[in-house]
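FORM 7B: Structural annotation worksheet

SECTION A. Query
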Amino acid sequence: MVYVPRLVDSQLDQWLGSAPVIAITGAKGVGKTTTMSQRAAHTLALDQPAERRLTEANPAVIRTLPTPLLIDEWQRVPPVLEAVHRAMNRSRSPGQFLLTGSTRPETAARLPRRGVTVRMRPLSLPERGLETPTVSLARLLAGPRAPIRGQTAFGGPDYAAEIVASGLPGIRLADESVRREGLSSYLTEIVDRDLPGLGADVRRPRALLAWLAAYAAATATTASYTTIFDTMTGEGAPLARHTADGYRALLERLWVLDPLPAWTPTATLPRLTTAPKHHLVDPGLAAAALHATVDSLLAGHGTTPGAAGLLGALFESLATQTVRVLATAAHCTVTHLRTPGATHEINLIIERGDHRVVAMAVKLAATVPPVAARHLHWLGDQIGDSLVDKVILTAGPSAYRDPRGVAVVPLALLGP
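SECTION B. Predicted structure
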């Protein structure tokens, strides 16, 4: 399969010449191993029983293998990390070890301080090569507010198709029936294999899949976990609440749940909520959990709490996924803002290292009225020059600035 270039590639190549250890974390299937293997002289695959047994018996074997050495799924043999530490104490030369892991370690295992770690998510829209971006997130972050422009034929049906296709490289390129089965299998393998691999006793897999569907239905909301728990349907007696909470923690360890944290500003603002917004690692998985298709999304089937419809929620999730990938490349963080009662709500806050921000609203619409920017203007009144730019991400055809300086940007035209 032809390698699909990733935005993180340039960072990896730079780090390869300066850092002894580079680690990529993220959910299975996002492309960690494929990306790292482009740079490896040898791969030690610890998800393969024979190589795992060899490494368990003698973790120091890593010192005998060619470098850069890719240690895939390193967390399956935790002592290998200590062997990496010892090897680095012997030599600090760059580009020795490339580590990938699909599970956040339960122990206090820490990567070497001289290494770098990056989170990989599924393919963002610009990485999918569907459109040529004309609006740079890095340029928006840099300020001042420069003119923007661009046209796209990408519209609502195209975004629905991209949501259902997913950003998982090994799944999205298959034909529709294979892709649908691949996403369904991804979810069932989490329940049948991945969670038991973390020591979970999944006695009622169908009930757990029902909880995942309830979580997917809450995509892009701050619904409480009690509310999510209470919306489970169709599986008889629900999971016990403490059981569901335990599974949720494990799903976060697997990077399958990817909640968006609430913004904690340095400026004094009216009281903000601290609840995260709910997202699965890929909106295609949320669509699969809810048995949504392109047709059902476009027909408006499957409403979600606090959203006009499932397509709107998943469009926001697609925008969130894309912006998080772009922000990682720009060394920025992404959060959301919400006041109690949703008096004010901003879907995405992209924060620079100096705490100045770009604020983004996400609207599934071809055109947006001026009132759509009211929360962005409110934030500008609160934090002044700390707000570098105001953006509305849309499903429309044109990129432009409105008379008050708000950047209106079709999601398909947003790039690094």
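SECTION C. Observations
The mean pLDDT is 92. The longest strand covers residues 387-394.

SECTION D. Sign-off
Analyst initials: ____
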